[in-house]
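Bench log. Compound arrived from synthesis this morning; before running ITC I wanted a structural hypothesis for how zinc ion sits in the protein. Inputs:
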Amino acid sequence: MREEACMADDPAKECGMAEHIAGLTNGSEQTAAGRQKETAEPGRSADRTDMERYSRQIRFAPIGPEGQRRLLEASVLIVGAGALGASLAQHMARAGVGRIRIVDRDFVEPSNLQRQTLFDEEDARLALPKAAAAAAKLRRINSGIAIEEHVADVTSANAAALAEGVQLVLDGTDNAATRLLMSDVCFALGIPFLYGGAVGASGMSAALVPGETACLRCLIGGDQEAADAGTCETEGVISPIVELVAALQAAEALKWLTGRRESLRRTWISASLWPSEWREWRLPGPSRDCAVCGRAKPPAESGLPMERAEAGLKRLAVREEASAAPSPRPTAGPIRAAVLCGRDTVQLTLDHPLPLERIEERLRADGCIITRNPWLIRAETGDGRRFVVFRGEGRVLVQGVSDAEEAVRGLTELLHQPNEEGVTVR
Ligand SMILES: [Zn+2]
């Protein structure tokens, strides 16, 4: 049996990884699903050190000292810490956005390093969750701001809570389902949604503002399957287009957060770098017939009155209920399955956390190659499949399988063990 990481009672002290992970856990509790960790004081005003640190963007007239003060007091949610999300997060951290919340469900792999600029080979070797690895890098880039990381899947159950209290949501996701969900939530809460997407050498971006523009559902349609056609899984992606799209989103974020709302680009940009092509259309206004943008109220200057947020979320809940249809995705009992963009990975979600230690024991006994860190275990089986089981969540990524059904079958085999109490799939 080979091991990527040796066994120890405290996973953070395992060989070779202690130093790398020390920067991530920073002496505080481990970060798992939904739990968060912060540094610095949020929402502080600019002092003399800040004036020096941010001097080049303060000298840029449209921002100035007042814009910088607003940035330091601002808070954003970045959904996804992959290629787009990591680039967006870096722009926001370097600009001095006071509070950055970042959420991602995935872990770092060697194939990410070609374009996901916050990660390195050590992150991939240790199979670190992207949200945790990104947060550690962001803290090294800027220790004067607050970073919250969430190692979690974004679902209708947690999306509104993740967006609570932020002034802006930046789209760094890789799939239409999450984008449409976040657009719905943003329009219900009155928060601008900075959409961005890249595939191949092409990308798109638009700043969607409740009460002023159409929502994402009106712009790309509600058909997730069609919207996901031509994902990075089939067409690949080159890093320059990711940076271009992230730059388009980050520029609009700076305008909004510094209070320069009149400067916002009111267009949908569709660009290709190879072959070179640039197209731009004026964004349509809210559609009267749309339940998402038709009744959305514009974002408030400062914060969102609670009653308005609640009314918006109530409308969203009614809409979800009305559109609830049998899931086209294969399921087995309480296991939900979703095929992830970009590689042969299926995400399985159970309604209860999994006993990691017992699963690890079983996988070791089977001769699997195990990688363990404070957030997850990754096991490589003899037949080339990989299981990644997240601590504190009922979530497993299965790689090396051809479809969701095979993934469910693999997990069911893994969990249905005789004399393994509590490790069963109901
Ligand atoms: Zn709409």
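What the model suggests: Residues 239-257 form the longest helix (19 residues). The pocket of zinc ion is lined by residues 214-215, 217-218, 287, 290, 292-293 (CB under 6 Å).
ITC booked for Thursday regardless.
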